[in-house]
From TrEMBL:
One of its GO terms (molecular function) is tRNA-2-methylthio-N(6)-dimethylallyladenosine(37) synthase activity. Its cofactor is [4Fe-4S] cluster. This is tRNA-2-methylthio-N(6)-dimethylallyladenosine synthase. Keywords: 4Fe-4S, Cytoplasm, Iron, Iron-sulfur, Metal-binding, S-adenosyl-L-methionine, Transferase, tRNA processing. [4Fe-4S] cluster 2 binds at residues 159, 163, 166. It comes from Leisingera aquaemixtae. Monomer. Catalyzes the methylthiolation of N6-(dimethylallyl)adenosine (i(6)A), leading to the formation of 2-methylthio-N6-(dimethylallyl)adenosine (ms(2)i(6)A) at position 37 in tRNAs that read codons beginning with uridine. SUPFAM superfamilies: Radical SAM enzymes. [4Fe-4S] cluster 1 binds at residues 14, 50, 84.
Length: 440
C-alpha cells in the first residue's frame, strides 16, 4: 500500500466552515488522505474561506501568495480554495493566483474526490454549482473515531433574508433545511463517539423546517427529538434571526433542560432608520420586546449579539441609538464590526460613512460591550453552574471546560476527565475566564 497523502486544511470564518472542513477531510479521507497540521509536508492544501468582510477575503490571497515557494519545491502539491470566497470569486481566483489548482463552492464538497483526481491528472478544476443533491448525504460518513466532547452539526444552510450588507444569500444560496432523521442519526453517531454537547448550525438556524415523519419540524421540535438521545447532555444552536424566534423555541428555553441558557441573536443596529435600510424587517423596539419574552421564559439566559457600525448613511444619532439598545439589553458577549462594502450587495452602492467616524464608533461600542461582558462574567461569582470539561489545564490537576453560559471555567484539583459534566461553584472572574471549584 502506498503511504497516505497528507491534507492540510486551514479554516477561516464561521463555525459552519469548521464543520464543513471536517466533512471535507472525511471525503478526502476516503481517497487516502490523512490530515496534517503543517502546510510544509502536505500533498494538498485547502483553504476554507470566508467572504463576509473584505479583510477576510483579502487574507486568502495573501495566504495563497505564501505558498509560492512551497509549490516551487513540490510541483505535485495541489492547492485548493473552498468556501465562500470560492463561491463568490470562482475563476477569478485562478486568474489572480495561478498556483491554485482547485476551486470548490460550499455546495459542492461531495464532489471533492472526483475533483482531486482531476487535479492529479494535471487539470485545473472549478465547481461552484448549487446542485440539487444533498451534499451531506453524499459525503462519506464520519469515520468511527472517538471525538472530543463538543461538536457542530449543520442542520440548515443558506439564507433568504437578504440583509442589504450581507453576501451570505449569494455565497451559501437559498435556505435549505436537512431532513430531521439524517440529523438525528448524525447526532446519535456523534454521541456514540463521545460527544456530549452538540451545537446546531445554520446561517439562519431558527428558520429550520426540515422534513420529519409527519410533516416539517420546527427547530424547537428538532431540539425535543435530540433531547431524547441518551448521553447527549447539552444542546445549543446558532445563528438566529429575531424574526424567526418562534413561540415554541422561546418556550423550549424555559422547559428543555438540555437546551443551554445562551442565545446568539444579532440585531446589527439600534436605529430604526438604519434597520430599515439594512432590510432587517424588525425594529429596535420589537427586538427589545422579544428579548423580554425570552428572558421571561429563561431569566438567566445569556444574550449574545452582532453589530455593524458605519453602515451607509449612519449618523451619530443613529449610532447613539445602537448604544442605547446595548445599554438596555445588557449583552453577555457580542461581536461588533465596521461595515465592509461587499460588491454585489445593495448597500455597496450607497453613500459611505467617513472611515474615521466609523472607527471611532466601533471603539466606543466595543468599550461598552467589553464592560457589559465583564459585568455579566463577574456576576457569575458565587453561582453554581454546570461545566462540561474539555481538556486539561496548564496547571497540574487543573481541568478546563465551558459553563452552561459558554464561559471558559478553570477548575483546580479536579479529578474529572474530559467529557464529564460537573456542578461547579464559581469562585473568581479573570480577564477571559472564570475559576471554579467542584461541588460535592
Ligand atoms: N460588513 C460588516 N459586517 C458584516 N457582517 C455581515 N456582513 C457584513 C458586512 N458587509 C456581520 C454581521 C453578521 C456577522 C456574521 O457578520 O454582524 O451578523
Ligand atoms: Fe446575512 Fe444573517 Fe442577514 Fe442572512 S440574516 S442576510 S446571513 S446577516
Amino acid at each position: 500500500m502506498s503511504a497516505p497523502k497528507k491534507l492540510f486544511i486551514k479554516t477561516y470564518g464561521c463555525q459552519m466552515n469548521v464543520y464543513d472542513s471536517e466533512r471535507m477531510a472525511e471525503a478526502l479521507g476516503g481517497e487516502g488522505y490523512v490530515e496534517t497540521k503543517s502546510a510544509d509536508d502536505a500533498d494538498m492544501i485547502l483553504l476554507n474561506t470566508c467572504h463576509i468582510r473584505e479583510k477576510a477575503a483579502e487574507k486568502v490571497y495573501s495566504e495563497l501568495g505564501r505558498f509560492k515557494g512551497l509549490k516551487a519545491e513540490k510541483p505535485d502539491l495541489k492547492i485548493g480554495v473552498a468556501g465562500c470566497v470560492a463561491q463568490a470569486e470562482g475563476e477569478e481566483i485562478m486568474r489572480r493566483q495561478p498556483l491554485v489548482d482547485l476551486v470548490v463552492g460550499p455546495q459542492s464538497y461531495h464532489r471533492l474526490p472526483e475533483m482531486e483526481a482531476k487535479t492529479r491528472a494535471g487539470e485545473k478544476v472549478l465547481d461552484t454549482d448549487f446542485p440539487e443533491e444533498d451534499k451531506f448525504e453524499k459525503l462519506k460518513n464520519r469515520p468511527k473515531a472517538k471525538r472530543g466532547p463538543t461538536a457542530f452539526l449543520t442542520v440548515q444552510e443558506g439564507c433568504d433574508k437578504f440583509c442589504a450588507f450581507c453576501v451570505v444569500p449569494y455565497t451559501r444560496g437559498a435556505e435549505v433545511s436537512r431532513p430531521a432523521d439524517r440529523i438525528l442519526r448524525e447526532a446519535q453517531d456523534l454521541v456514540e463517539r463521545g460527544v456530549r454537547e452538540i451545537t446546531l448550525l445554520g446561517q439562519n438556524v431558527n428558520a429550520y423546517h426540515g422534513a420529519g415523519p409527519n410533516g416539517d419540524l420546527t427547530l424547537a421540535q428538532l431540539i425535543w427529538e435530540l433531547d431524547k438521545i441518551d448521553g447527549l447532555e447539552r444542546i445549543r444552536f446558532t445563528t438566529s434571526h429575531p424574526n424567526d424566534m418562534q413561540d415554541d423555541l422561546i418556550e423550549a428555553h424555559g422547559t428543555c433542560a438540555k437546551l443551554m441558557p445562551y442565545l446568539h441573536l444579532p440585531v446589527q443596529a439600534g436605529s430604526d432608520k438604519i434597520l430599515k435600510r439594512m432590510n432587517r424587517s424588525h425594529t429596535a423596539e420589537s427586538y427589545i420586546r422579544l428579548i423580554e419574552r425570552i428572558r421571561a421564559a429563561r431569566p438567566d439566559i445569556l444574550i449574545s449579539g452582532d453589530f455593524i457600525v458605519g453602515f451607509p448613511e449612519e449618523t451619530e444619532e443613529d449610532f447613539q441609538a445602537t448604544m442605547d439598545l446595548v445599554e438596555e439589553v445588557k449583552y453577555g458577549t457580542a461581536y461588533s464590526f465596521k461595515y465592509s462594502t461587499r460588491p454585489g450587495t445593495p448597500a455597496a452602492e450607497r453613500p459611505q460613512v467617513d472611515p474615521a467616524a466609523a472607527d471611532d464608533r466601533l471603539q466606543r461600542l466595543q468599550a461598552l460591550l467589553t464592560r457589559q461582558q465583564r459585568e455579566v462574567q463577574d456576576s457569575m461569582v458565587g453561582r453554581e453552574v454546570g461545566v462540561l470539561f474539555e481538556k486539561t489545564g496548564r496547571l497540574p490537576g487543573q481541568m478546563v471546560g465551558k459553563s452552561d453560559y459558554l464561559h471558559a471555567v478553570h477548575v483546580a484539583d479536579c479529578n474529572r476527565d474530559a467529557g464529564e459534566l460537573a456542578r461547579v461553584r464559581i469562585v473568581s472572574s479573570g480577564a477571559n475566564s472564570l475559576a471554579g471549584e467542584l461541588i460535592g
